[in-house]
Amino acid sequence: MAQSAPTKESVRVGVVGLGGMGVQHARSVQSLGHRVVGGADVDSETRERFGEEFGARTYDTHEALYEGEEPNAVIIATPNKFHEPTAVAALERGMNVLIEKPLAHTLESAERIARAERTADGFGMVGFHNRFSPATTAFKEYQANGAFGDVTHVQVDYVRRRGIPGRNSWFTDPEHAGGGALIDIGVHAIDLALYVLGFPRVVEATGISRSEFGWRWKYVDPDRPESSDWDGDGTSFAVDDSASAFIRTADDRTVSVEVAWAASQTSRNDVVVRGTDGGATFELGGDSLTIHHTSTRGTPHYRTSEITATPQLTPHETQLEMFLEAVATREPPACNTFDQGLMVQKIIDSVYRSEEDGRSISLARADEEMPA
Questions:
Q1: Comparing C-alpha atoms, which of 189, 172, 155, 178 is closest to residue 259?
Q2: Positive or negative CA dihedral for 85, 86, 91, 93?
Q3: Measured between alpha carbons, how far apart are the two ends of the chain, in Å?
Q4: Tell me: the pLDDT tens digits for 187-237?
Q5: Structural domain tally of the chain?
Q6: CB–CB of 127/98 below 8 Å?
Q7: Do 67 and 139 belong to one domain?
Q8: Do residues 233 and 85 share a domain?
């Protein structure tokens, strides 16, 4: 059932998954001048709180939400395993879908979501909000004006000294999440690196995922003492808590990624870009950009420029604004597409397989087209 074209003032939004991320999105929908018409969640208390805050009807299934409210747009903030059934059902009804990253919990599920969107009246976006940070936006503007020449390598480190989600949460359940730190925060690092490179054809990935802290009886987290000393038998942590990956493109550009929920080092979330004419460093989700050049003016010297922006909206809000604008105008955005999300999922799957097989994984021949 195709949806009628909404106006900018009448985008009707349904939210599936009413936990912290779903509530954050719903608040942003309202602040941007649109309407939250309903929500769906399996937990009755969560539904009650959501309904009271947003004055919206709530349902215990996504199907009931879609039938009862017929939203123009659906935001999916469920555990990864449930992205596919909720997204495909919305797309089959002609609704537009924003899925919180990653696209799905497995590559096969992500492929089914992407196929469903290609034949649907609606469109999809993946929640890669770091693309919309002031630092990333400034970098892309300077890049478009040739400040860096040809970008040949991107390094992204997204490392927490401590920050493993609760062992009894879905984040550490491989059936629901599809993995650990790599699929949770590594997805952001890989997506942003590919975005910086312009989503080139990726032909090879290799990597190692590790579980070094989450399985221990004594996991010490000074920032969250309540998370220390797991209440378990030391065998219930079955996902990775860190990963290292290396990615090669068809034209021999490269990406290196380090991600960790826990590590014996200082926390960092740095993006380092190397180009033939200049380079840059910034933080994932940050407001500041440092540009590195050299010059022969006067005398050979290094030139470093510091750029800081004051955003009017958060990256999440800017992303949501783009999504709702696209829904209102019925013009699918070229950014954060399901095909791009699928490429990120292929790389994550390849890194996990690389660790299992002890070898690099070939993603595609050099003459195969990747999603732009």
A1: 189
A2: positive
A3: 29
A4: 999 999 999 999 999 999 999 999 999 988 788 888 877 766 665 555 568
A5: 2
A6: yes
A7: no
A8: no
